[in-house]
Amino acid sequence: MRSTVVTLLSFSCGLVHGQGTPDFWQPGGPDDFRGPCPMMNTLANHGYLPHNGRNITKDVVISAMGGALNFDAALASLMFDQAIHINPEPNATWFTLDQLNVHGILEHDASLSRSDAFFGNNHVFNQTVFDETRRFWTSSVLDPNQLANSKIARQISSKAFNPTYTFTSSTEQFSLGEVAAPVIAFGDVFTGAVNRDLVEYFFVHERLPTELGWSRKTSVVTLNDILRVKDMIHNATSLITEAPPGCPASKRRDLHSGGRLYQRRA
Ligand code: HEM
């Protein structure tokens, strides 16, 4: 027993990048940094990223995302490049997980599992917010439609109740990538399907869902995979549908907008 504790402690305290494993998992302690990204937190909890959440360099990110998720090095490198400006130091080569918490740079409103900064803590998992998201995950296998619905619902809720709601077009791109992320990590990048239990387990525990049978993808994940799934989610966010064949709605005139009246008057 004592030797197990000593081994665990020495492992978690002395972890350097590249030593992560799906079997080792320990949540962040009081002196460890964690942030709003459930995957970055997960990778730190498993020791793929430094367990203390500090000194996250490009090499560390490439090794962590490759080791845990089979991400292509070019993809991991690109993600690092898009995040490094979060460190305010000039020419910084590293960031920390808590630097990701700054509202309005990468962290934004209407997250799937975090509260808006306006309401309080914007980076710790929030069960109430996540329950709102989960309401739209209506079957045991999620598809782009359900993921898109949860994204829109969170935005509407935030827009309705947060007087400082902000969601720019660049936030939209970032957000689409985040909503696609569970499919990238745990699902099918060609159909956009992903097992709901795996996704929920990941969000709630910030842990890779190996005990539910998940394992690291055997094929390398590339930027094209992300763009494909992001497109699927984006297409599914439209609230406009075709009329069913033969439906009388196809004969409906532009009654409420007065468009035809306007045409007659002009
Ligand atoms: C350098 C790598 C990464 C950085 C710097 C990063 C950073 C962030 C940040 C700042 C957020 C918070 C956005 C918000 O306010 O909602 C976020 C959210 C998220 N990230 Fe990451 N991320 C990285 C990689 C990944 C990867 C590889 C995955 C999974 C494949 C992932 C999955 C997610 C998910 C699912 C969310 C949404 C959380 C929510 O809406 O509650 N991230 N990430």
UniProtKB/TrEMBL annotation:
* Signal sequence interval, chain numbering: 1-18
Q: Which cofactors?
A: heme b
Q: Name one Pfam family in it.
A: Peroxidase_2
| InterPro entries referenced in this protein's UniProt entry, alphabetically | Chloroperoxidase, Chloroperoxidase-like_sf
Alphabetized UniProt keyword annotations: Heme, Iron, Metal-binding, Oxidoreductase, Peroxidase, Signal
Q: Where is this region: Disordered?
A: 244-266
Family of this protein: Belongs to the chloroperoxidase family.
The name this protein carries in UniProt is Heme haloperoxidase family profile domain-containing protein
Q: Which organism is it from?
A: Coniochaeta pulveracea
Q: What is the lineage of its organism?
A: Eukaryota, Fungi, Dikarya, Ascomycota, Pezizomycotina
